[in-house]
Amino acid sequence: MKIELHLLQNFAPSNLNRDDTGAPKDCEFGGVRRARISSQCFKRAIREAFETEKLFGAATEDRLAARTKRLVDHATAKLVELGHDAGEAAHLVEFALQGAKLKVKEERKTQYLLFLPRRAITDLATLIHTHWEELKAAAPAPAGADAEASDEKPGKKKTKAQEKNEAKSAVPKPVTVGLEKIFKDTQKTPDLALFGRMIADAADWNVDAACQVAQAISTHRATMEFDFYTAVDDLKPNDTAGSDMMGTVAYQSACFYRYSCLDVDALTRNLGGADAAEAKALTKETIDAFLRATALAIPTGKQNSMAAQNRPSYLLAVVREKGTPLSLANAFVKPVKASGDQDLVTASAAKLEAQLKTGLELWGSAGVHAFRVGEVAVDGASAVPGGFDGWVSAIVAAWESRA
Fold this sequence. Notes:
nine-stranded antiparallel sheet; 2 domains; single chain; two-stranded antiparallel sheet; alpha+beta
């Protein structure tokens, strides 16, 4: 079963997602420039909403994952709490991670971001604490401690894979086995189950995402504007005129079409569970949290300057019992224009519903159920009673009745 979300979100002047020049991201669609917010930007906002809105209740902190390069520092802090010296603990954490082919680089950061359950940090510290003496005996001296190390004769240069394999073999076997278990244990972690992860050096640790998130694009032609700003020194002498700082910042205002699709069967597999009842309960909880987080997610770029705190104006969910999902982005191939008394949001909602109707007539409507709610009304499209909470409940109920 698939749950598609089609949202219209009209943001006030803002710069929510910047490119490398500091300007709002954009793209071309339908032959015209559109405002754009990347899928990565919204996925991060969704993950943050899980936490800020406490969408998994009291267990929120324990349920979620973290994306970090700072695994060494956080595991070290846990070991210090267990009574170990900070410097020695950090050295052994770095050494132990070689058993998972994870290389630690400058500032004690791993070579790439790791997306892992937050509980893995505690589990890693516990593993190292348990095998502390074995690791101490096997670990080389800290960098700079062995002056003779630089006297080794240069030999044939090893590949990165060979270096990692040799480093792994130096780590005690019980630790490498424990690390494998820690990093493979991704079940019961909703955000990791939803968005997946890819680790090049350990393909068997990869998790295929249960959710797809599209780039958000404006339903209309977008133009970029520039705000010229100045700042005045509050403590300058009264006889001094003029500003003490000036510059420009790019911004735009747009009604965005947001599309995402959740494969509920894949979500259930990723979440795991000891039995069918537990798996169903966790899946239900995650669907509910995902629907709420998606609607509540707002990117944070330049918010202190522009405060574009605008929630979706129109929410359409399509539940498909079988078959492939369908984006409705082509509803906006021809840019929407406000006309007369009809604003951009209302006009966009009408085109969205028309595209849905066309798709159902062309590809079939069997096993397809639509649920909508919003600030605007579209002729022939009835809203779910109960507002936003009623919309979420109706979608979850539609899945439960067929699960």
